[in-house]
Every structure is written in C-alpha cells, then in structure tokens.
Task: structure prediction
Amino acid sequence: SPGNVVAFITTGGLLAKPIRQLSEVQSTIQKGLAAAEDIFDLFDEPVEKNEGGKVIERVAGKVEFRDVCFAYDDDENDLVLDHISFTVNPGETIALVGRSGSGKSTLASLIPRFYSPLSGQILLDDQPVETLNLASLREQIALVTQHVTLFNDTVARNIAYGTLAGAPVEAIEEAAEKAYASGFIDELDHGMDTVVGDDGVLLSGGQRQRLAIARAFLKDAPVLILDEATSALDSESESYIQRALEAVVQGRTTFVIAHRLSTIENADRILVIDKGRLAEQGTHAELLAKGGHYANLHKQKDGGEASQSRRSARSQTLVPVPEAPSGGGLLPGSLPGSEILTGSWYRSNGWTRYLAPLAVVFTLLAERRRKRISGNPEAHWRAPVPVVVVGNINVGGTGKSPLVIWLADFLKNNGYRPGIVSRGYGGKGDYPLTVTENTEASLCGDEAVMLARRSGCPVIVDPDRPAAVRHLLATTECNIVISDDGLQHYALDRDLEIIVVDASKGLGNGLCLPAGPLREPPARLNEADLVVVNGTGDWQWSGISHQMTLTPTALVRLSTGERLSLQDPALPPLVHAVAGIGHPERFFRTLSDCGLQTVSHAFPDHHRFTLKDLMFGDELPVVMTEKDAVKIAALNPSLVHAEFYYLEVSAAFDRAFEDRLMAIMAEKTNPSQATAE
Result:
C-alpha cells in the first residue's frame, strides 16, 4: 500500500545517520581493542619471582659477582656471561667496556634482578640478592639507561614518579639543577608544569636523557647504574654532566657502561668484557700499558691511516647510485632554490630584463633608506665597544656562519672577549633573548643555537640589533661585538664590515631584487673593509678579496655526540645527504670530496623538518648540515634509526688575512672603545 511504501522510505532515510555514527564508533572500538590487547599481554606476563623476604635499609654498596653465568632461555650452550667474578668496594666507580653485544648491559641488569643468573651468585653487602625482598633491593639502586621512558605528564612528575611521587618541589628542582636540566626547563612555556607529550615527544633526545639523570639524582640511591647515560647529550652538555656525576658518585657504588672511552678514563677500575668473559681489568693507564683488549678498543676509536686505506679500497667497488628526486625536490647540480625566479637569477635568462626597472626602483629605495638612517643621529646608534658586521649582499646563504665562528675563536685567541648578536631568523621568542646550546630553535632560529654551541660566546637574538647589543653589554663582560648577517641593519653603527661571497654563485646576474639576487648593488663591495670569497669558482672581482676554505673536521652522531673520522671504516660510504640551507649543492659536493656517495635531498633554506622528511625506507646513515642538526635533533630522529650525523666544518684563512684583519681593527677602533685584554 502507499502507506507501507512511505514508511519504508522514511525508515530507510532514518538509517543513514546511525550507520554514519557506527563508522565513527568503529574507529574508537579499534583503538580500544588495540589498547586492550596491550593490557592483556601485560597481564599474561609471568610475575617476577620475589622469594626473598629480607628487607634492608640503606646499604653500604659492596657488590660481588661469584662465578656468575647467564644465558637467555637458560641455554647453557649459548652463554651471554661466562664465569664472571669480581668485587666492587663501596664508593668505587666501575666502568664496563667492550664491543657491542659483549654482555655489558646484561651484567648490570643482573644486579637489580631483572634477570637471574644461570649459576653463581651475586651479593650486595655480602647478602645474596635472591634472599632480598625485590622492592627493598631496587630501592638501593638508581638506573639510567640509554632508552628513556617518559609519560604524558608534567616535567616535575616525570622526574618524581613511582616511589618518588611525594618528593618536595625543592628536591625536584635541585635534582634538575644537578642534571643540568633546569636551563631548558626554565625556557619551557610552563617550566616544571609543562606536559612533555607521549613518551616525551615534545623534548629533544638530550633533554629526555637529562630528565632521566635528574631521576637518579632525586632517588639518591647507594648504587648507581649508568648505561650510556650521556648518550644523547652534545659534547659540552656531557662535560657538565660528567662533572656533576663526579660529585654524585662520591660515597656510592657506580657502574658506568659507555662506548665512548673518553667518558670513563677516570673510573677507579675498568672491566673489559669480551664475548661474555671478563677479559681484563685495571685503571685506564694500566690497561693501555698492557696493550690488550682495552688498548685495541682505544686505538680503534682514534682511527688511523689503515682505516683510511681500507675505506678507499672499499669505496672503489661501489656502483654510483642515481640521485633521488624526493625530499626537497632538488638534484645536485640544480640551482639554489626551487622557484623559477630564483633559478633565473643565476642563469642567463633574458626574461629577467623585464624586471630591471623594478630592480632600479629597489636600488633607489634601499639607498634612500640608508641615507635617511645615516643622516639622522637618532636613527642609528654606536656601541661603546667595537662592532664587526659579517654579512652579504646576496639573498640566501654564502657561508657567513663558519666565518662568524672562526672570527670568534680568532678574537678570543688575541685577547678579546667577543659576543655575538643575531636576528634569529625564524625564531618566535621574546626579545632580546639570550641563546645557549640548549635553547629551542623555535625560539631563536637554528643558526643562533649553532653559533652558541660552536663559538662558546654569549649570543643574543633580537631583530633590533642595537637592542641586542645593549642587552649583550649589560649582561656580559664582552668588549667586542660580532653582528651575524647585519650588513643591511644600518641602525647599528659598525667599525668593520666583512662581506662574504660564494665563489660558485657569485653575484648571479648582478641585478638587485626582484630581477636579481642582490639586496644592494655590486658596488657595495667597494665600501666593505674585507671581502671574503667562500670556496673556489668562476666568480671574479677586481678588488682585493681573501679566500675562505671550509674544511670538514668530523661526522658527529646526533644521538650521542660521538665524533667519527671521515675515514672511519665503520661508516658506510653510501649515505642520505640532507640539506636545508641556501646552497645545498656545496654541501653535497663536500661530502663527495670526502669520499662519500650520496643520495641527496635538498630542502629550502630554514626548512622546518618533520620526521617524515627523514624517512627514506632504509637504514642508510643520514648526514646533514650542522645548522639543520639543531632542528632535527629536537624531532628525536632515533625513532627512525640511530644513524643520523651532522658534518662539522671549520673555516680556514691564510696568515695574510689574519694580519690584515688585525691591522684594520687597530686602525678603525676608537681609543675610547674597549681593547683586547
């Protein structure tokens, strides 16, 4: 009947919304099922054996291994630890070294009874650990591993969790201070109350590791196990941590596991584990004198000519791999930038002449602005100390940062106390901002963090350069200022100007924006005190210039700060090369000159990387520029794999440039300004 038809159609129409809602519920159900599966797997795990009933107070820290053997799955034919015996007295610092897979971490894991030995006995203060209550035993031990687990909670609650949850705020802050974590914590939006995200995803690898070390400080246990505890710290942070650890190990027994042998040279005793056996033990000096396993490990870390020859022989057998068009989309040999306009600046494209009238207007406006500032005493400011400006007239990178780092070192070696001011391109912090190696790149830009880390000088970021210099002089004892990329910031008077030109790019078509790549006309070079040419190329200039050579010094592992020689045989010669700089081809060419074959991935200058940018579907090492490493380190790239490196380069000049620089400084520096002390 018509009524049934209408009822059917109406009912069918009403079904649409519940069905759509069911699809939304389905995704929630799937998430719940996945979570439930993890929970049930946890429930299915066997309960740890806790047969010991003895509860102990704070122990002295004596640890003894008596003929201990261990094998996973209790397989006596595949021993991981083979008849290990040694005694550690209270307060001793013991280093465990050996090749990967030798059993170092397994040995340390037996102390808190994460595993039970197959045979033999482990004693804590002369008491077998199996006779001790498990919770009581683990109260005596603080553990920091190379894999840090953080919770989606505040920084404070991640430091003080579990049995430490009731710790007073003052104790938490003191632990963070000792672990050198307070610096970056203070820079977070809400300090100790900042939520760090799932597994600490909002923190860098080094920051996560420092929170783990702060946990150990807070627990104040008599036995301390450090399993690659400084693996995610850069070299300078690690030196701070090493000094802090030297204080905290006093009066407690410490086991240190490290691949970087330089970090354990001061241990009271070094135990060398080889294939599950205790191969040798002694102090650093004693083991080197023996010329055994430890000496061989130490020698391998230093590299050598033999490794270089092996690497050369191996690289000759490789078949070149085509460059990948993925990533940023640029191939080696292409011109800087992916935009047609940018590329045309460095090619003979006739159509750019149609923009020439606009270039004339831009030039006139730039010159008018400069005269307006220089003619108005209130529009510019002279600092009471000498100011050296390092800049360029090109758009894009030319190699200023390595020159700034070199200049800072040069001035320090000549008795000055330099400080650096920078615009902080891409930063979103409150200015003026004091930048340290631990400052987030999102606040100040990547270059400023790199300058702070490499130069060791105070670095202030502010788009207003005079304000940056005032803050620098008010908060430090600097007596000379280096302005990074401040050539066109005429509000800050300068005593010395250095203009950097990339030899391979030159000045492009020689026109100003938008017809060419120049911010100021080529004649501006004649006004500079020094013109520095970065590298070699076809660009020629009639004036006096000085060549800067960028020399690769090391590959630095991003996760640990470990420095590898470019001839290290452990480094595969085929790598992914990642560059988000103004001239990526120079970086790719440098890697090629070092004997590395690259699959190159170029990105725009100051690119904001994501983990997706670094996923190439394999586990080949990824090598990046030092500037890009500042941003990429904050992404926790170890979530992809551990083989991420940056290329450290250093600038070099001949003696003639150094002499001319000092002569110009002596000539241009006012007597009333600060001098080198």
Q: What stands out?
A: DSSP finds 20 helices and 23 strands in the chain. Residues 302-339 have pLDDT under 50 and may be disordered. The longest helix spans residues 2-44.
